Amino acid sequence: NHTSSGENIVYRLRLQNNGKGLEYNKSLQELFSSIKVRVAQNAAGESDAQSLPAFAAHGWDVSVKTSGEATTDIGGFVGGANADIDIPVLSIAPGGWIEFVMKSRIRPDALDQIASTPKY
């Protein structure tokens, strides 16, 4: 979430397996390209309910790290510029973790908080 437009943001998503068994055959989706925010009017007469992609103005960068076990698998996902997280099958070893970091800037005309809920 954010409160001020134009700010740099860092979004962290960490999945951790605290159990004793392998977490497997799960999927994860966090589609940054689909996140929208209500924006300010640019001209008189424009709708004050216009929503635009939250991060498209500046782009975003996604990085990923894992705990490194052979059974912690992210299906070849490497992240990068303007990457959405869309992993159809992942697994996390017992005690293992996966951490995604997205960095961007909030568009300067954003009016509302930006919230996102990943699908796992």
Features:
single chain, 120 residues, mainly beta, Immunoglobulin-like, 4-stranded antiparallel beta sheet, elongated
Task: Characterise this structure.
By secondary structure, the chain is mainly beta. It has one domain: Immunoglobulin-like (Sandwich), CATH 2.60.40. It is built from no helices and eight strands. The strands form three sheets. A four-stranded antiparallel beta sheet has the order 1-8-5-6, with no helix packed on it. A two-stranded antiparallel ribbon has the order 2-7. The chain is elongated, with a radius of gyration of 17 Å. It starts with 7 loop residues before the first strand and ends in a 15-residue tail after the last strand. The model has no long low-confidence stretch (mean pLDDT 91).
List the SSEs and their pairings.
Blueprint: E1 8-16, E2 23-30, E3 36-38, E4 51-53, E5 60-66, E6 80-81, E7 85-92, E8 97-105
Antiparallel strand pairs: 1-8, 2-7, 3-4, 5-6, 5-8
Give the tally of structural domains: 1
- Form type: elongated
Please tell me the CATH architecture by its name. Answer: Sandwich
Distance between the termini: 19 Å
Structural class of the helices, strands and pairings?
mainly beta
Number of strand segments:
8
Give the number of helices: 0
Beta-strand fraction estimate: 35-45%
Order of helices and strands: EEEEEEEE
- The value of Rg in angstroms is 17 Å
Q: What name is given to the CATH topology? A: Immunoglobulin-like
Q: Which class in CATH terms?
A: Mainly Beta
Helix content: under 10%
Strand order of the largest sheet: 1-8-5-6
